[in-house]
Amino acid sequence: MVSERPPRSPPAHERRILLLAALAGLPPLLLALALLWFGDYSTKLRLTLLLVAGGTWLIVTLALREAVVRPLQTLSNMLAALREEDFSIRARGARADDALGLAFLEANTLGETLRAQRLGAVETSALMRQVMDVTDVALFAFDADGQLRLANRAGEQLLDQPLDLLLGRDAASLGLADCLEGEAPRTMNAVFPGAAGRWEIRRSDFRQHGRPHTLLVLSDLSRTLREEELAAWQRLVRVLSHEINNSLAPIKSIAGSLRAITQRAPRPADLDADLRTGLSVIEGRAEALGHFIASYARLTRLPPPTRTQLDVETWVRRVVALETRLPVSLRPGPATSIRADGDQLDQLLINLVRNAVDAALETHGGVSIEWRTRNGTFELRVEDEGPGLANTANLFVPFFTTKPSGSGIGLALSRQIAEAHGGTLELENRRRGRGVEARLRLPMSAK
C-alpha cells in the first residue's frame, strides 16, 4: 500500500517575493559576467566588476523585497490592532492617487469608523447601565447555562448582596428558580432577602455574543397596589361624603325647622300640614340615599358570570322591546350565538339603550343597533343621534353623571360586566354625524 504524500505547502509570501526579485535581476547579471569573462579584461578588473555587479544585484533584490513586504506588514499590524480593539494606530502615506496609499487610506478610515462605533457602543452601554440602575424594577440576565450575568441596583437590593457576589451564580442559589419557570407574565407572592410582597414576573429572550440569554424582570406590585387602594378609598370617601351630605343637609335643616314649629306657643293652625310636608321631604331624601347605597352595593357585589349559550338576535330584540319611549332601529347582523350570562348582558344592553334614547330625545334623533363578528370576536354597536359627549374622561367613573336624576352607576356597571366576560366597552362620539357610538366587544370562544 502506497501512502499518499501530503500536499506541499506553497512557499511563504516573503520568500516568493525574494525569489522573484532575484530571478528578475539574474539574467542581466549573468550577461554581465559572460561579457567580463570573454572580454579582454584583467583579472583584477573582472573581480572588481563581479563584486560590484553582485552587490548591486543583492541590494536591489533586498530593497525590492522590503518595498513589497513592509507595507503588507504595516497593514497586518493595523488589522491586528483593530482586532484587539486598539483604534489609535494609523498608517502613514495614505493618499487616494496611489494604489498602496489608497489601501492605507481605507485602513485608516476603517479604524476611524470602528473607533466611532465603539465609542457609541460604550456610551450606549453606559446609558443603559444608568437607566437600569435608576429604574425601580429588579432586572436579572441569565445565560444559557442558567448563570447570572447581569443585575441592576434594584436587583442587588432585592437579593441584599453586592453584584460581585451575585454574578456567576445559578438561579436556584439566588432563590429565583421559580421565577424562570412557569407562565410569564404573571403575579406571585414571594419573599426575597431584601423585600417581600406581591411581584409581577416578566421574561424575555435576547442574544449576546451569539449566545441566548434570558432577561428576568421583577416588579413590586405591593406599593402600587397600596397606592391604588389608598386612592380608591379616597375617591370612595369623597363620593360618599358628597352624596350623604347632600341628603343629610336638607334633612337636618327641615328637622330643625319642624322642631322650632312644634315649640311655638300657641300652636300654629297649619302645624299638621307643615309636619306632613317636612316629613315627606325627609322621607324622600332618605329614600334617595337608600337607593344610592343600594346602587353602590350592587356595583361592588357583581357575581361571576354564569355562561350559557345565548342567541344574539333574541337577546337584542328582547332588550329593545323594553324601550317604549322611542322606536329603536335594528340592523341585524349574522346569526350568532355566544356563551355569556344572559341576565348580566341584559342589564348591560338596557343601560346602553336607555342612555342612547335619553340622548336622542334631547335632539329628536334616532337610535340604532347592529352587530357583526370578525376574527373570533363579537361586536355590537349602539348609535344615537343625540348631542354627543362633551367630556369622555369620566364616563366610567362610578357615581359620575351629567343627568339630573342619574346615579352614575349604569356605565360603570356595564363596563364591569363586559370585562367580567373578557370583553371591552367603549363610548365615543360618532365620526360621521352627531351622537355617540357605544361598542361592546366579546370573545366568541369564551368558556
Which terms would index this structure?
alpha+beta, 11 helices, elongated, 447 residues
Description:
With 447 residues, the chain is of the alpha+beta class. The chain contains eleven helices and twelve strands. The protein has helices at 13-38, 43-83, 99-134, 153-159, 163-166, 171-174, 221-262, 271-300, 312-320, 342-363, 410-420, and strands spanning 138-143, 148-151, 186-191, 196-208, 211-220, 308-311, 328-331, 337-340, 367-374, 377-384, 424-429, 436-443. Helix 1 runs antiparallel to helix 2 and helix 9 packs across helix 10. The model has no long low-confidence stretch (mean pLDDT 77).
Q: Shape from CA axes?
A: elongated
Task: Note the run of SSEs as H and E.
Answer: HHHEEHHHEEEHHEHEEHEEHEE
Instruction: Report the helical percentage.
Output: 40-55%
Helix run count: 11
Weakly predicted, low-confidence segments: none
Q: How many DSSP E strands?
A: 12
Major sheet: size, sense and barrel closure? 5 strands, antiparallel
β content, as a range? 15-25%
Structural class: alpha+beta
As laid out across the biggest beta sheet, the strand order is 2-1-5-4-3
Mean pLDDT across the residues is: 77
Report the C-alpha radius of gyration, rounded: 45 Å
Distance between the termini: 77 Å
SSE layout and pairings?
Blueprint: H1 13-38, H2 43-83, H3 99-134, E1 138-143, E2 148-151, H4 153-159, H5 163-166, H6 171-174, E3 186-191, E4 196-208, E5 211-220, H7 221-262, H8 271-300, E6 308-311, H9 312-320, E7 328-331, E8 337-340, H10 342-363, E9 367-374, E10 377-384, H11 410-420, E11 424-429, E12 436-443
Parallel strand pairs: 7-9
Antiparallel strand pairs: 1-2, 1-5, 3-4, 4-5, 6-8, 9-10, 10-12, 11-12
Helix pairs in contact: 1-2, 2-3, 7-8, 9-10, 10-11
